[in-house]
Amino acid sequence: MQRLLILLALVLVCCHGYALGPPIEACVEMFPLDHVADARNDSSPFTMTINAT
C-alpha cells in the first residue's frame, strides 16, 4: 500500500499541466523556445479535398 501511495504521489507531481494554457513566454514569438530548426516557408506536400456529400 505504501508503494502505491508513493507511486501515486510521483505521478501527480510529474504530470501537471497549465490550467490557463501555455505560459505567456511560450506564445510571444509563436515558435517553440527550444526549437533549433528554422521555420519552413515552402508549400505543404499535402493537399486537402472536400467531398460535398
How do you describe this structure in short?
With 53 residues, the chain is mainly alpha-helical. The protein contains two helices and no strands.
Largest sheet entry:
none
Low-confidence runs: none
Radius of gyration: 21 Å
Strand proportion: under 5%
Number of helices: 2
Instruction: Give the rounded overall mean pLDDT.
Output: 76
Question: Structural class, from secondary structure content?
Answer: mainly alpha
In one word, what is the shape? elongated
The portion of residues assigned to helices is 25-40%
Number of strands: 0
User: What is the element string, with H for helices and E for strands?
Assistant: HH
How many angstroms separate the termini?
Answer: 56 Å
Q: How would you portray this structure in words?
A:
By secondary structure, the chain is mainly alpha-helical. The protein has a domain at 1-33. Helix content is 32%, strand content 0%. The chain has helices at residues 2-14, 24-27. The mean pLDDT is 76.
Q: What distinguishing features does this structure have?
A:
0% strand, mainly alpha, 53 residues, signal
How does the SSE layout of this entry go?
Elements: H1 2-14, H2 24-27
Signal peptide: 1-21
Keywords: Signal
